Amino acid sequence: MKLKTHYLILGISLLIIEIIIALYINSGFIRHTFGDYLVVILLYCTIKSFVKIRPTVTAIGVLTFSYFIEFLQYLNIVNLLNLQDNKILRIIIGTTFNFSDLIAYTLGILTVLILEIKVYYHE
């Protein structure tokens, strides 16, 4: 397995940004929309760091996973599993369904695909 360093560096950078957002920003666009936009890019970069998969396959997988998590939020899975007192899991899984999150995930993945195409065709 060959580690893709540029994806790993970007993934770690995005993780740090996501942690800062989670710890210090309680509301607004950055917390509720931009964080969701970034999280799919973070997941994409993490996967691409360790596994050689075509960009479209990775992007579709990440987007599907993100939609699934949002669907679990719609079902109120945190309360159904009695995890409402676990702050870390509440942050990771999320507790509130929002249709706008699906849009943010989609835009994040589209950004990744556009950047991948630009890099691929300009190397």
Automatic annotation (TrEMBL):
Any Pfam family hit: DUF2809
InterPro entries to which the protein is assigned, alphabetical: DUF2809
Keyword Transmembrane helix carried by entry: yes
Biological source species: Aestuariibaculum suncheonense
Source species, domain of life: Bacteria
Lineage of producing organism: Bacteria, Pseudomonadati, Bacteroidota, Flavobacteriia, Flavobacteriales
Key words of the record: Membrane, Transmembrane, Transmembrane helix
Transmembrane domains' residue ranges: 6-25, 57-81, 102-121
Annotated protein name in UniProt: DUF2809 domain-containing protein
